[in-house]
């Protein structure tokens, strides 16, 4: 044997992050001067150092080196016993190296980090959270959980038994918070609460979080309901203030149009003059068409008229005209008669655009712009005399059909002329 070594202690302990020194006495058992180098076995190289790194001894001489252990404070360094060795290697005779062994005890340390995720969450009745527990120590840690504060307003669902958290790992524990009763309306309410994390060292860690309970009927929903009620009131006001009168007007116009159609087809109502005479002299004669074309119809009624020496007579002329075209329709006074025109009514039920002209015996009586009226009446103080075989003519130039109330836009213009007067015998030549 070329050397001998004695550890001052073969069993030592060290706290991670701290250090422990072990003196070692080395003796030269040979008969020549020898240099020795040292190696630490059984632990990571970064944990241990030897000072001095080498030692030269004379025969029978001895010296001391110090072995220092510095394990890091890390969860990766498990607590417990580790066997180590110090190898003494002679430079001249490396094959005669010797190893001295010992036991290094790494003491446990406890370090725990925990937090509630998310720290704040909302819901109508309850919410789910997660407790993240990180074991930063070097031993497996049993961790228990308990609700500490806030239990008067909310209830908690937590594991009943402790959770084992190995060192260097994270445990995710589910936490459910539930309000004791529903919040029907009003502003959201905040319920702060505290959960305790209880590791094995007995020192509880308090974790704070908040549950925000939202109302079933929120302020936004109340505003929406109020807005809908206001909209309904506005629609009711529009209906009763605007649309309903227009519907009534449209209905009245439809009735008037139907009456005009009945008159045009000969379904006339007699006048109220006394001693009515059968309407034998109530002829209706068709008129000519114009480039725009159109469909026409007409009809008349008659009866005796007092004061003008004839019989009361009325006739309707109604026809349709194509857009950007014109058409006319005439009433021809029958042979042997004279028509005394006292008044007439022109009707533009659709609100068409264009012009309307009334002539009597080739003399223009009036010209109207259609867009300026829906119906217009004309009264003559002195009756307009239309002799036998002469015509009362309605001429329409259609620029664009109008839009009746509550009805689709038609494809043609539609106008009517209602003539009223006295039909007398023509004077003898």
Automatic annotation (TrEMBL):
<feature type="compositionally biased region" description="Low complexity">
    <location>
        <begin position="262"/>
        <end position="272"/>
    </location>
</feature>
<feature type="transmembrane region" description="Helical">
    <location>
        <begin position="221"/>
        <end position="242"/>
    </location>
</feature>
<protein>
    <recommendedName>
        <fullName>Hydrolytic protein</fullName>
    </recommendedName>
</protein>
<keyword id="KW-1133">Transmembrane helix</keyword>
<feature type="compositionally biased region" description="Gly residues">
    <location>
        <begin position="286"/>
        <end position="305"/>
    </location>
</feature>
<keyword id="KW-0472">Membrane</keyword>
<keyword id="KW-0812">Transmembrane</keyword>
<feature type="region of interest" description="Disordered">
    <location>
        <begin position="261"/>
        <end position="305"/>
    </location>
</feature>
